[in-house]
Write a structure and sequence with these properties.
The chain has 203 residues and is of the alpha+beta class. 25% of the residues lie in helices and 34% in strands. The chain is built from 4 helices and 12 strands; from the N terminus they run H-E-E-E-E-H-E-E-E-E-E-E-H-H-E-E. Strands 1-2-3-4 form a 4-stranded antiparallel sheet. The chain has a 4-stranded antiparallel sheet with strand order 5-6-10-9. The two termini are 32 Å apart.
């Protein structure tokens, strides 16, 4: 199951079935009108597929070994238009690099934007997958402060004050590392529209 449409259908079906079984029918995603968007990690252990609906709903499908396993609805971004006035994309999800996994950035491009690149400080460049205005990019990069993220968390009881404090420190380190990644966005003619930090304080 590697086609985006099949992965989306699998994630949607599983989400509806499991939410219904738990009685969470007030938060079910729409059953019809979904379209697959940009994707990363199509057949990897962990990947993601963006999705959008004819009714304006948006979501991100979790992928595991090529199979769509869950559809997380994205909250409506009330400040999206204002945000895109300052940069030509909005962020739906970002994940820092840790435990050997790449960093990733996913979201929607503003009208007129056609291509997005992630740039690491070591010169590595990754071009985003772009589908119907959505984008998804991942880049292998060494985020120094997160090299031992797992060990840092496992050194404390998860429910303890120390464990919660360490988790907050890791989140802060992740945000700092992600701001070191640069994004370049171009229009269809190759004109540079944006060159700056991958995320900001509100992402």
């Amino acid at each position: 199951m590697t086609s985006p449409a099949a992965q989306l259908e699998s994630a949607l079906t599983t989400t509806i079935e499991e939410k219904t079984a738990r009685g969470s029918t007030d938060r079910l995603p729409p059953t019809q009108g979904w379209h697959p968007g940009a994707r990363i990690g199509a057949t990897a252990e962990l990947g993601a597929l963006l999705a959008y609906n004819d009714d304006g709903s948006t979501g991100i499908c979790n992928l595991e070994n090529g199979r769509g396993t869950w559809l997380n609805l994205q909250p409506q971004d009330q400040d999206q238009s204002q945000d895109q006035n300052q940069r030509p994309y909005s962020v739906w999800r970002w994940t820092a690099a840790y435990n050997g996994r790449p960093a990733c950035l996913m979201g929607r491009l503003a009208p007129g934007a056609a291509r997005l690149e992630l740039h690491a400080s070591d010169g590595t460049v990754a071009e985003a997958d772009v589908v119907d205005g959505t984008f998804a990019a991942e880049i292998a990069v060494d985020m120094v402060s997160l090299r031992h993220a797992r060990e840092r968390l496992e050194a404390h009881e998860a429910a303890s004050a120390e464990g919660r404090a360490e988790f907050e420190r890791l989140m802060a380190d992740s945000r700092t590392e992600m701001t070191k990644l640069k994004v370049r966005v171009y229009d269809s003619a190759g004109t540079l529209l944006y060159d700056g930090a991958a995320i900001n304080a509100t992402d």
